[in-house]
């Protein structure tokens, strides 16, 4: 009788808290920065910007030194992250902002037949939220609520950190907000994220895609944050540092909430940026030691910080991971973490090619020195392309001969070896052409010609390749 009573109590406990209590599925979080410089966090070498909370996340998890995103500008990069497919495969190569109005509106955005990471996680029982910047289409069929997200709060398009009701730019679900609850969007997005977590039933895991605007232009910071960097004379750089500091504070707020509610240990958190920082008069990010910036096909355009944390999931503490991987890997990694490993035949599902791999065994050190990918690719038609194969990197632009770099000893890509190693140049040009020929779609739309003209001088420009000291901006700024 005692055994029956104890068994009944156990069944009631399981019913209240879910079978997952014995082996709970992790919560899954992506914290995405926008146009963040590779060198603009102290754990990645910044001497100017204090990021103690992000640093703590890195020291408690794995910090990656060769993490890439699939696009060199915002929207294409996000399209790849959402689907686990090179966005070129479905014609999403150019930014939505700046697309000419003569393109069919039904084509401008993430195609509705593409399955998102939120679709997949929602289907296996996750509660899902997208908070922050969307930029993957403005039609109702492309709205986050139509793409697998139970909850949406943020901007479908545009930027700005001090929103006003009259602008009707901030949406909750499908309607613009009628009041401003928090005056600064970086703070507001975090408040909404914490509220979403609090409203998630205790027996249901959640997937949170927290896509901050920070530090994308316009450069707008709170006075309290600017005061911390009053010693930096350059106004734009000072403002960017303050914005990054605010982002770090908000990462800290989110992590504190997870810890206070006992959820941190079993939450897989990935922190990264959508592409490289902008290094010019409008933004003043620092990508050092990487050369170049957003929109370019040198590493400054798509080589970004990546941090993974999951204390109860076997991700080691305080480790460096130095093998190349790409943001397309997040989808299969999250599915594997959720206990739903993705079983593809020849990398295909329903005739579609998928390009990501599960990173967990690599991050846990179970695959030795193996690379998740032998070769990685990038392209925006009419603006450039690149391929990384091992440590060799080839950059192709419309107006210059192909450039070849050995990243094993030239991370800044300053020594072009295309002429001295023609056999490698030819091999990588062929790999790039073979990849391009595998697409079923041409680009569905193009950016305005102004964006295309921008490439004509950026590859010859000077970029800071070392971090500025704590009191001044880089010499070129």
UniProtKB/TrEMBL annotation:
Family: Belongs to the sulfatase family.
Keywords tagged on the record: Calcium, Hydrolase, Metal-binding
Organism phylogeny: Bacteria, Pseudomonadati, Planctomycetota, Planctomycetia, Pirellulales
Sample GO molecular function, one term: metal ion binding
Domain of life of the organism encoding this protein: Bacteria
Residues of the Sulfatase N-terminal domain: 26-339
Annotated protein name in UniProt: Arylsulfatase B
PROSITE patterns assigned to the protein according to its UniProt record, in alphabetical order: PROKAR_LIPOPROTEIN (PS51257), SULFATASE_2 (PS00149)
Presence of the UniProt keyword Hydrolase in the record: yes
């Amino acid at each position: 009788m005692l055994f029956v009573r104890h068994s009944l109590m156990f069944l009631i406990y399981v019913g209240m808290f879910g079978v997952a209590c014995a082996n709970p599925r992790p919560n899954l979080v992506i914290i995405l920065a926008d146009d963040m410089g590779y060198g603009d966090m102290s754990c990645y070498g910044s001497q100017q910007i204090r990021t103690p909370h992000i640093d703590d996340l890195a020291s408690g998890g794995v910090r990656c030194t060769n993490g890439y995103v699939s696009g060199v500008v915002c929207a294409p990069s996000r399209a790849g992250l959402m689907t686990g497919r090179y966005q070129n495969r479905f014609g999403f190569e150019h930014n939505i902002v700046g697309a000419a109005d003569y393109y069919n509106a039904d084509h401008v955005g993430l195609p509705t037949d593409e399955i998102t990471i939120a679709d997949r996680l929602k289907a296996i029982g996750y509660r899902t939220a997208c908070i922050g910047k969307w930029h993957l289409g403005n039609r109702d069929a492309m709205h986050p609520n139509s793409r697998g997200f139970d909850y949406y709060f943020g901007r479908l398009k545009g930027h700005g950190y001090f929103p006003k009701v009259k602008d009707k730019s901030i949406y909750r679900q499908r309607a613009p907000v009628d009041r401003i609850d928090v005056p600064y969007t970086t703070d507001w997005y975090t408040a909404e994220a914490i509220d979403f977590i609090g409203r998630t039933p205790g027996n249901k895991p959640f997937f949170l895609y927290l896509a901050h605007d920070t530090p994308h232009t316009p450069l707008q910071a709170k006075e309290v944050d600017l005061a911390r960097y009053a010693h930096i004379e350059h106004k734009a750089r000072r403002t960017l540092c303050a914005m990054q500091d605010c982002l770090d504070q908000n990462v800290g707020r989110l992590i504190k909430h997870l810890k206070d509610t006992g959820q941190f240990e079993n939450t897989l958190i990935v922190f990264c940026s959508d592409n490289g920082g902008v290094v010019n008069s409008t933004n003043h990010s620092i990508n050092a030691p990487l050369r170049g910036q957003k929109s370019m096909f040198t590493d400054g355009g798509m080589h970004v910080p990546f941090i993974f944390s999951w204390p109860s999931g076997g991700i080691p503490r305080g480790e460096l991971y130095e093998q190349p991987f790409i943001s397309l890997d997040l989808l299969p990694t999250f599915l594997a973490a959720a206990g739903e490993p993705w079983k593809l035949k020849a990398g295909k599902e329903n005739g579609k090619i998928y390009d990501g791999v599960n990173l967990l065994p690599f991050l846990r050190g179970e695959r030795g020195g193996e690379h998740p990918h032998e070769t990685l690719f990038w392209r925006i038609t009419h603006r450039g392309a690149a391929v990384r194969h091992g440590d060799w990197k080839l950059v192709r632009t419309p107006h210059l001969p192909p450039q070849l770099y050995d990243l094993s000893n030239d991370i800044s890509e300053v020594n072009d070896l295309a002429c001295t190693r023609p056999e490698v140049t030819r091999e990588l040009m062929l790999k790039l052409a073979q990849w391009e020929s595998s697409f079923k779609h041409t680009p569905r739309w193009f950016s305005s010609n102004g964006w295309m003209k921008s490439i004509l001088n950026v590859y010859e420009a000077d970029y800071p390749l070392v971090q500025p000291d704590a009191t001044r901006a880089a010499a070129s700024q």
